[in-house]
Amino acid sequence: MMTIPNTPQRSAPHADPAEVSAGFRAAFRAHPGGVAVITADGGDGPVGLTATSVCSVSVDPPAVAFSLSAVSSAAPAIRRARTVVVHLLDADQLELAKTFSTSGIDRFADTSTWDRLPTGEPYLPSAAAWMRGEITGTLDVGGSAVTAVRVLEVRLREDEHAAPLVYCNRTWHRLGGGSVVA
Known about the structure:
Layout (H helix, E strand, L loop, with lengths): L16 H13 L3 E2 L1 E6 L4 E6 L3 E5 L2 E8 L5 H6 L2 E6 L5 H8 L13 E2 L5 E2 L5 E13 L2 E13 L8 E4 L2 E4 L8
Antiparallel strand pairs: 1-11, 2-3, 2-6, 4-5, 5-10, 6-9, 7-8, 9-10, 11-12
């Protein structure tokens, strides 16, 4: 086995924080993210938000994570909730994505778009897939909280022509057979 000798760490030059922030935003603006809606009930009624930060963390046990912005009106209730439902959306659910990303409205006003699971969580039955899970931890980072969720239940909608909804460069997109590059 080869060992690499310790090398002294050099102090990296510090870039202008405003430039780093602008570059960071530009980089992720051009990086597509799948669109999800996260719902919960922290005790004061249903809340929800649209997120592009959902990622798979573990298969065994099944776990996901998402970033929860402190400025989201739903954030306090989600942080109080013990469980959440993470909905993965298809392009035909664009209106749900828009509704749950709009500030200052009652996102649950249209009672035809949601229901409650037997366990009490609000959920969107039309979602391409949904996962009910228990919040296992949060990590505060800047103005957000990375939220870890152990998945307890999964439901998939049977649709062989599904086209995932993706958000990139401030625009909604549909992924489909025509988007394959290899």
